[in-house]
Amino acid sequence: MQGITLFQYSLIYNAFSFTFAAMAATTLFLWLGRSEFSRNYRTAVTVSGLVTFIAAYHYLRIFNSWEAAFDVKNGVVAVTGYAFNDAYRYVDWLLTVPLLLVELVLVMRLDAAETSRKALTLGSAAALMIVLGYPGEIASDIPTRALWGTLSAVPFVYIVWQLFSGLGASIERQPEAVKGLVKQARLLTFASWGFYPIVYMAPYVHLSGPDATTTIQVGYTLADLVAKAVVGVLIFNIAVRKSRLEEA
User: Fold this and answer.
1) What pTM, to 2 d.p., does this model score?
2) Most CB contacts within 10 A, which of 62, 72, 142, 168?
């Protein structure tokens, strides 16, 4: 963390601040809009709001930790001696990543048995992916990071296969008016999740110190915004459209 520039510090600082505000605003939007859709989809949107609520809380903690780790005077950034706690991010993912898959399954309104089965298998795989990725994230050498990153990729590949194969037939059974939105939610989930491993591998290309920190923190933050806030709004729109179809 030594040698971080004012630009790098400010970029990460503002990214954390913006994301906290975006997650909090999305939570309010999702939860206050419950009257827009039928009770069949309230659980799905409530879970989506829970995802952004948890993310907002952890981004506030991350923001406070980042601010405490540095002292800025006369355009010079110096470390304060307080360690930046990046573990908040993995605690957040351990809670929210399984819920991201659960909300997608719930809004599709499959039969009870299929919903339970897919929510359990996908949620468990997502939690395993996060647990396996954390030792690599905190590792100080590339081989250890690569080992745990590879292990974490196994449940990730399983999740991708389930999104496009296991849920493919179920998505095709969705009403035509919402099928495109459900596919967009699935694609955005895949695209944003696929961005995390790319950011994770930043040290592989000889990025280190403040450059690696900036790339990783901003990269993970952008992926979180898409995976949680943007997909959450899509889940809301799917719920509203399906509710109106069913009422009609």
Assistant:
1) 0.91
2) 62
Residue 158: beta bridge partners?
none
- pLDDT single digits (tens) 71-109: 998 888 999 988 898 889 999 999 999 999 899 888 888
The Cα 60–Cα 74 span in angstroms is: 26
- Sequence letter at residue 13: Y
Q: What is the CATH number of the domain that holds 68?
A: 1.20.1070.10
Vertex 245 angle, CA 244 and 248, to 5° = 85
Structural domain that includes position 211? 6-247
Helices (H), the chain: 6-32, 42-69, 87-108, 112-137, 142-161, 168-172, 176-200, 209-224, 231-247
Write out the H or E segment, with its range, that includes residue 72: strand 70-73
Judged by DSSP in three states, 77 sits in: strand
DSSP category for residue 84: P
For residue 182, CA distances in Å to 97, 128, 138, 141, 163 come to: 18, 25, 35, 40, 11
- Looking at the structure of the chain, the number of domains it has is 1
